[in-house]
Amino acid sequence: MRQHAKVLWYDRARYVYMEFCVENSQDVKVEIEDNKVIFSCLNEDNIQMYNEIKLYDRVQPKDSREKRSDRSITCFLRKWKEKVAWPRLTKDNDKPVWLHVDFDNWRDWDAEEEGEMALADQYLDLINSVKNKGAPPSMDDLDDLDDDL
User: Which of 19, 66, 71, 118 could pair covalently with 30 via S-S, beta carbons 3.0-4.6 A apart?
Assistant: First the structure.
């Protein structure tokens, strides 16, 4: 018996993330090609899970990875064209019932780099404000503490 694994996916500027939701998976095989992903494994009940996904656009297989945890297998697919949004994961207009958008991780990545730059500027300002404070304070008052003991 063979079933499809539930897949959550979301888009980022450089990567597309896919999470195959299979708890306690065994014999995990992920084949990442430039235009498709083939996933298979056994679940905890020894049922074979299998998904073949023809991707919306090309990815870079050599710069793509997968990571297994107790609850899922996550694929990080490096986009061939960075900073180009994927409106869907597959080429097909029809959405399979096992494919879901992960809205918890979906962000507006157009503004993501601007946010990162703002944080970096804020950190730099903080470092500069701390760096130029003049000479360190004298520690003369600590000598008085030694006399009291």
Answer: 66
Q: What is the pLDDT of residue 95?
A: 87
pLDDT at 147: 58
SS3 label, residue 57: coil
Segment holding 142, helix H or strand E: helix 140-148
Ordered DSSP codes for 65-124: EEEE-SS-EEEEEEBSSTT---S-SBSSSSPPTTEEE-TTT---TTTHHHHHHHHHHHHH
Q: At 146, which helix (H) or strand (E)?
A: helix 140-148
Q: Which helix (H) or strand (E) is 36 found in, with range?
A: strand 36-42
Q: Does 127 have pLDDT greater than 80? A: no
Q: In whole angstroms, what is the distance from residue 64 CA to residue 31 CA?
A: 10
How many Cβ atoms from other residues are within 10 Å of residue 76's Cβ?
17
Rounded to two decimals, the pTM is 0.71
Give the pLDDT band (50/70/90) at residue 105.
Answer: confident
Read off φ and ψ for residue 32, nearest 5 degrees: -105, 115
> Coil, helix or strand for 46?
coil
Three-state DSSP class for residue 143 = helix
